[in-house]
Write a structure and sequence with these properties.
Blueprint (H helix, E strand, L loop, with lengths): L8 E4 L2 E4 L4 E3 L7 E3 L14 E4 L1 H11 L7 E4 L6 E3 L2 E7 L7 E7 L2 E5 L21 E6 L11 H14 L5 E4 L5 H11 L6 E3 L1 H12 L7 E3 L12 E4 L7 H4 L5 E5 L6 H6 L4 E3 L7 H11 L3 E7 L1 H10 L3 E4 L11
Parallel strand pairs: 3-4, 4-5, 5-6, 10-11, 11-18, 12-15, 12-16, 13-14, 13-15, 16-17, 18-19
Antiparallel strand pairs: 1-2, 2-3, 7-8, 8-9, 9-10
Bound molecules: zinc ion.
């Protein structure tokens, strides 16, 4: 009988620890050996001795935290290239969340666990799609694990934005989007919808967009959004960090319309609170139907939930004959969406 993953994949104060492999996955504090699913700051933290991740994730970590803090040694591992770590076979498989994002597939003595990190199932032109891997234990997030969270089609949300742009040709649309993943996806979605004019960037987005381009994700013409040159921003699309869309910087633009791209925009009160005039429900996390579909497809008899709204999900899983277990991992916030 192969060992149950419970006996070799443990919850510790620093996060999930693969005991025979001697490595942590997305540890919340500095550890000797870390495997990182993706570059968001609640998963990729500075100060580890050795870091393993996809080449894209390692590049993102170097950009965000600097060469020194992104791991004393960095070991790139491409998708679908199994690596033996102390007898544990580790394979990284696309998670469809942001560029470089990976599920960590671990095989040990005939038992398989998959840690998905964050993921989504809806198509994203900036990263390869999530691939379901059958396993004994699937570890999932539950950020949007309530039936109310059914994300609309991204193309329909972009259509709303373009409609607003044609209704208000003099105004500047300032779109709040997190700098890793969401900003680039918004640009790519705009391009898919036929927006071929330059997209203007708040300074906080420039370096990450340049890195995406360097890594082969084409984003089309990008220009800095400089307040000094307000005239150039008439009718423009400006991407900014969520915190900037209603601040002084944004107010100095041309009669700005604050927009926000996030799964949380499904909740109207949240949009109102943030001063968002045009909420765009575009998420890089699985919605409720995607969570259930994924649970079916990976065929795991048991699903562990790292963080988020686990109660509703555990209930729904039990109706499907799947045992759900809440891990209550700390340090994984809704943070970067
Ligand atoms: Zn993430």
């Amino acid at each position: 009988m192969p060992p149950h993953p419970e006996s070799w994949l443990r919850v510790t104060e620093a996060g999930l620890f693969c005991e025979p492999g001697g490595f942590y996955i997305d540890p919340t504090r500095a550890v000797p050996r870390a495997v990182i699913t993706h570059g968001h700051s609640d998963h990729a933290r500075p100060g580890h001795m050795s870091v393993l991740g996809t080449p894209e994730t390692l590049a993102i970590m170097r950009l965000r935290m600097g060469e020194e803090r992104a791991g004393l040694t960095q070991q790139p591992l491409a998708y679908h290239s199994p690596l033996d770590i102390n007898g544990v076979r580790v394979t990284l498989v696309p998670a469809g969340h942001v560029l470089g994002s990976a599920q960590v597939v671990m095989d040990w003595q005939g038992s398989r666990a998959v840690v998905s990190g964050d993921y989504k199932r809806s198509p994203d032109p900036t990263c390869p799609p999530f691939e379901p891997v059958t396993c004994d234990v699937f570890v999932t997030e539950a950020t949007f694990a309530l039936p109310v969270f059914t994300h609309p089609k991204p193309a329909d949300e972009i259509a709303k934005l373009l409609r607003s742009a044609s209704l208000f040709p003099e105004r500047t649309h300032v779109i709040g989007a997190y700098s890793l993943g969401k900003a680039q996806r918004m640009i790519a979605l705009l391009r898919q919808s036929g927006w071929d004019r330059p997209v203007h960037l708040h300074g906080a987005h420039v370096a990450m967009c340049a890195l995406y381009e360097e890594l082969g994700v084409k984003l089309g013409p990008l220009l800095p959004a400089t307040v000094k040159d307000k005239a150039a921003l008439v009718g423009a699309m400006v991407l900014a960090p969520p915190s900037a869309i209603a601040d002084r910087w944004a107010r100095r633009l041309n009669d700005p319309i604050p927009c926000m791209a996030s799964g949380w925009m499904r909740i109207r009160a949240r949009a109102r609170q943030g001063g968002v005039e045009l909420p765009l429900v575009i998420s890089d996390h699985a919605d409720w139907p995607e969570l259930l579909r994924t649970a079916r497809e990976v065929q795991a008899p048991e699903i562990w939930i790292t963080h988020g709204r686990e109660d509703a999900l555990i209930h729904a899983l039990s109706g499907m004959g799947i045992r759900g277990r809440a891990l209550h991992l700390v340090g994984l916030e809704e943070g970067e969406e």
